[in-house]
Amino acid sequence: MTFAVLAEPARRQILDLLRERPRSVGELTAALGLSQPGTSKHLKVLRDAGLVRVRAEAQRRWYELEPGPLAEVDAWLAPYRWMWADRLDALERHLDAADEEKP
């Protein structure tokens, strides 16, 4: 379920914004360039998946990142990291060599 939710680019962008700090629907709508109903629909999907939580404060609702499900995704990805680590190490060696060749 979490992977299906994360497949949508706008939802990933919402999570990126919430990683910085809690935000209101209005802030998220402005940052995303979506309509308020569109933003709310994405927030509902994220809430239902347990990826965000909402906190009411007076008349505003603040959306916050819920890290638990993301930790599960991270744990699932852990065995695959060796593939990226080797490539990143190779890139680092290549860039270091290129820097050494510069006059």
Automatic annotation (TrEMBL):
InterPro entries: ArsR-like_HTH, HTH_ArsR_DNA-bd_dom, HTH_MetalResp_TranReg. The keyword Transport does not apply. The keyword Transcription regulation applies. Coiled coil: none annotated. Keywords: DNA-binding, Transcription, Transcription regulation. It comes from the Bacteria. PROSITE patterns: HTH_ARSR_2. Residues 1-85 form the HTH arsR-type domain. SMART domains: HTH_ARSR. CDD domains: HTH_ARSR (cd00090). PANTHER family: TRANSCRIPTIONAL REGULATOR, ARSR FAMILY, TRANSCRIPTIONAL REPRESSOR SDPR. This is Winged helix-turn-helix transcriptional regulator. It comes from Pseudonocardia abyssalis.
